[in-house]
Amino acid sequence: MYKKNLDNYILGNIDETFIPEISSDKDFFLIDRDEVKNIIKRRRRNSHKGTYGKAGFISGSKGMAGAAVFNLNAALRCGSGLVKAFIPDEIYSVVESKSLESITCTYDEKNFPFEKLQKEIIDYCDVAATGSGCSNISVYQDILIYLLENFTKPLVIDAEGINQLDLKYLQRCEQPIVLTPHYGEMARLLKKDVKYIETDILKKSADFSMQYGVYLVLKGARTVIAYPDGKVCINTTGNPGMAAAGSGDVLTGIITSLIGQKIDVKNAIKAGVYLHGLAGDIGVKYRGEYSLIAGDIINYLPNAIMSITDK
């Protein structure tokens, strides 16, 4: 397939059964099942919860408790040994009741406890994610900056984290940073319009990742993953039924979980995006494209993982 048609393929404007012939290009790759199977391996018999990582989420706000719940439950279903939420007091009862297996730490937004954030997330967790459902937190930009300056392990930034991100901070960070924008968020981050993002998608994604030294997960009909070394992957799973509120929060939970399980960041992102789409593909067989919701993606995530690991 000619490269000029790749943008249409990524945007979903070419029939989904058509696979672009880009294998001859050393910088562009398609993600396939066999590759993901080599990443998601069977578990050792003598393992324990500490083996599979401590994942922390600074997410959710009043009116958006579901974002935190989706983060947490997706991480749990994807195999994290321990999942911890750092959430506003106002949404405690919802999150606590909807994610029983998670640990919940709350804070008062009017008197934000940075020392508690340091202890409960920064010093304790192997990986952290932030931004999902955080748009109603008045001090959120201060929280984001604190994480960028103090968290030395992999950090996944989604949604409001991208909306409030100052690019100058990325160039100062030494820890792995994963950004998970959709096209609108990417356009705002670059101060461009969406049409700009939708033209020459692979090159622009690669250029951004190399310039800022980050891992970019550009969510869309065919999610694009760009790495700091200039390599770009195109996902081959997923369907229009996944175009629903909360789907991105689920993806953030999956990616964060896999990174926390000590899978290297590059492979964790690749496998996470593939499994997210595969769970949606399984779910759409039972729910249909009109009725699929974010919670269904989590519910069918075990089926996706078992189909990859054969167990």
Short description:
By secondary structure, the protein is an alpha/beta fold. The chain contains 15 helices and ten strands. It has helices at 6-10, 33-39, 65-77, 92-98, 114-122, 140-150, 160-163, 167-170, 183-190, 194-197, 201-212, 247-260, 265-291, 294-299, 301-309; strands spanning 28-30, 54-58, 82-88, 103-107, 127-130, 155-158, 177-180, 215-218, 224-226, 232-234.
List the keywords:
about 300 residues, ten-stranded mixed sheet, 15 helices, UDP-N-acetylmuramoyl-L-alanine:D-glutamate ligase, alpha/beta
Helix-strand sequence: HEHEHEHEHEHEHHEHHHEEEHHHH
Q: How many H/I helical runs?
A: 15
Cross-sheet strand order for the largest sheet: 1-10-9-8-7-6-5-2-3-4
Q: What spatial form do the alpha-carbon principal axes imply?
A: globular
**Strand segment count:** 10
Major sheet size, sense and barrel closure: 10 strands, mixed
Instruction: Let me know the CATH homologous superfamily.
Output: Ribokinase
Q: What is the CA-atom radius of gyration, in angstroms? A: 18 Å
* CATH architecture identity: 3-Layer(aba) Sandwich
- Count of the separate structural domains: 1
User: Helicity, in percent?
Assistant: 40-55%
The percent range for strand residues is 5-15%
CATH domain topology: UDP-N-acetylmuramoyl-L-alanine:D-glutamate ligase
